[in-house]
Amino acid sequence: MGLSNCKLQSRKQVGSSWVGNESENPFEILLNKKDRTCLRESFQRLQEPKEIVGIIFVDIVNDIEPDLRAVFGVNRAPKAAMLSMPKLGGHVARFTDLLEQITSMLGVSENLTGAWQLIRKTGRVHAKQSFLEQNFNQLEKNYFEIVLNVFDHRFIPYLTGEKEEPLPEGQAPRKVRFAQAYTPDVIATVWKKFFSILVAQMTDAFELERSKMRNSQNQKTLAPHQHIENEVKKKKRISERQSEIEHTANSVEKGPEQLFEDPF
Ligand code: HEM
């Protein structure tokens, strides 16, 4: 059996995309068990992660990538009202849920395959966003990298305890705070690694999905023209066969060539 066949057999299909076997899972290769527990425990220390994610996204659309304002439907909204707009508010909620879900899969249920599938699926769904479909460029404008780089600087300090968490109005900080089992350096290093895995996996899944979409779009565009070409070929084949039949029929009508006795 060829190498490519072996490789294919060790892969399994997830939705419309392929993920490799466990030995290729970046959450397995690049993070050890202690790293994964650290991710989960440091995330769980946050009382209201959505508040922090919201503040960061508002800054991204205002100061870092204003082109994303239209994507998130906040073009005309004042800064203070942006998070109550459904698209931006929805994205902040989904982004936070994703962190919650993945850190739980990595640090609690140890469902590393599930975590990998989930992040690849998240990359894929973004190919359907027309802004990203048209403007995402791995080398110049990798929007996943832009966003998660901001998270490196702005989110990690809350995880390490370097910064005090913002809480919604009227909400008091938790009275009992668990002692942090990891040093700020360890937490920062693990989260940076985690974010870089997200960038790499989302980018790869996004690119694969986008080229698949473009290929099928191209085929649809080509189809009418191909239909005409095929029709012409078919007609030609039919008329060739017809003339062949007629030719044979003529020969049969004439009957076999008659041999006359030589009179001489
Ligand atoms: C949807 C996460 C970056 C635009 C989502 C969803 C998640 C997510 C979990 C929901 C997916 C689902 O429905 O299955 C992330 C993460 C990002 C990221 C982790 C990391 C960098 C971006 C960027 C854009 C974007 C840069 C800018 C175009 C959207 C839009 C949706 C979406 C428009 C559709 C749903 C909605 O309106 O909330 N994202 N996203 N995302 N994302 Fe992102």
UniProtKB/TrEMBL annotation:
Instruction: Report residue spans for region: Disordered.
Output: 211-264
Keyword list (alphabetical) reads: Heme, Iron, Metal-binding, Oxygen transport, Transport
- An example Gene Ontology molecular-function term: metal ion binding
KW Ribosomal protein (keyword) present: no
Q: Which domain of life is it from?
A: Eukaryota
Q: Which InterPro entries match?
A: Globin-like_OT, Globin-like_sf, Globin/Proto, Mb-like_M
Does Transport count among this protein's keywords? yes
**Name of this chain's protein:** Glb-12
The organism of origin for this protein: Pristionchus mayeri
